[in-house]
Amino acid sequence: MSLTVSPELLDKAERGPVSDEDFIACIRESLPYAWEVVSGLADRAGGSGAEFEANETAPPGEKERGQLLRLVASDAMRGAVERHFGMRLAFQNCHRVALFRPDADEAYERFTAPRAQLLNQSPELVDC
């Protein structure tokens, strides 16, 4: 299961649309490691002025790796996170996640290109 949904939030969803604020709170509580990684990137991006910030640290375990994968694999969660931080989210492997400024089209295209994916591979990532 990707998210731990409270009975109250489930009731809201059954009755109609759910706000991004409520959905983000659910993501933050359900996937704390993934949230820490992405919010840390957003904090770094806010202070660095760089076109993007990327995570280079492998998750400490399978539980954390699973959280990160669930976050980036869900269109709904990815979209909510992008709207929340006002940045684009990109993903290369089990830990190489990046947040891009909205106007960083070239950097985003380079990061998400097949060449970048191939260059980011190593024998250590086979089980990633």
How would a textbook summarize the main sheet? 3 strands, antiparallel
Whole-Å distance between the termini?
19 Å
The helix/strand order is HHHEHHEEHH
What overall geometry do the principal axes of the alpha carbons give? Answer: globular
Helix-strand makeup class = mainly alpha
Can you list the strand order of the major beta sheet?
Answer: 1-3-2
The total count of strands amounts to: 3
Rg computed from alpha carbons, rounded to a whole number of angstroms: 15 Å
Summarize this entry quickly:
This protein has 128 residues and is mostly helical.
Task: Give a topology summary.
Layout: H1 7-15, H2 20-30, H3 32-48, E1 52-54, H4 62-73, H5 75-85, E2 88-91, E3 97-100, H6 105-111, H7 114-119
Helix pairs in contact: 2-3, 2-5, 3-4
Throw out a few tags for this protein:
7 helices; 9% strand; three-stranded antiparallel beta sheet; single chain; 128 residues; mainly alpha
Describe the protein's architecture and organization.
The protein has helices at 7-15, 20-30, 32-48, 62-73, 75-85, 105-111, 114-119; strands at 52-54, 88-91, 97-100. It is mainly alpha-helical and 128 residues long. It has a three-stranded antiparallel β-sheet with strand order 1-3-2, sandwiched between helices. Helix 2 crosses helix 3 and helix 2 crosses helix 5.
